[in-house]
Amino acid sequence: MRKKFLVIQFVFALFLSSKSNAQTADDIQNIALLLGDALFFSEQYIQPATDAAIYQSSSGWIVSPKKKERWKVTLGLHANAFFVPKNDREFTIQNSDFSFFEIEGAALAVVPTAMGNSNQVYLIGEIGGEQVRLETPRGVNQESIVYPYLQGTIELPYGFEFIGRYSTKTKLKKGYYQVYGFGLKHNFSQYFSKLEAKKINFALATIYSNEEISFDFLDINTAYGNLGINKLTSTVDTFHFIFSASKEFKKFELISNLIVNTSNFEYIVSGQKGEIEEIIPLQQTINSLLETIAERKTNVIGEISGRYQFDKFYLQSSFAFGKFANLNLGVQYQF
């Protein structure tokens, strides 16, 4: 029922925005139904990737919960590796899922998500008396996704610490991934001298991060030109709340983190606009409709980390776990 209601919205939006009398009512309606199918497919295709983006951005924020000397600066180069689970690499489609398209030569098919392989099937329909034949989008076809980033901290008065992170756009086989963020950590074991004497540290942190993940999407040609929805991008705004505890053993520190985060997901199609924009503002229309699948999610993630000191250098590895698994490695220098 929800899908039928959306399709009716598409039809009215396209009728109202149409600038040409040459389009038949049937063609306008078929384009609307095609967009309904694209909306259904986009949600199934990109959702595993946006879920993964949260784990990729959650790990490695706390290099140590302990309090340092005021104005101490630490800079680090990190590499993050996310392991793509098999269950999130593909999904099943069938003809009953679609209002416009049909699967060529089959009643159902297994297709990759954005995190899946490069297998493709064809979807077919008809607009303006011409066949529309679409290749389903490929996935990244990688068992792990690795990206580097820079992270720095500066110790502030009263046991506060500012944390910042930035990565350039990391190229994937069919898109890119980028993350940046910042936040504050506060050490509260400083208020308990017995804990400090035993080299036990506790801290709380609040972090904001922005993740952007983009993939090649649907390259659709029709009798009225290309539709211009060949790139799908998701932006994820996440607030992380982290409880961190550690125990020091001479030059080695064992750290455990409990991460609770809440994320807002938004989706847009982008890239070069298609020829059909001369008739219908299609990219604007489908981006408005993508707002209907925007959502908010909450995750609880555990993390274990180890940090070893060599003079002013530190080596650190972190493993985050929950629905997914994520590994983080870093080299830091403390000024």
TrEMBL record:
Residues 1-22 form the signal peptide. It comes from the Bacteria. It holds the Pfam family DUF6588. InterPro entries: DUF6588 (IPR046495). Keywords: Signal. This is Uncharacterized protein. It comes from Flavobacterium tibetense.
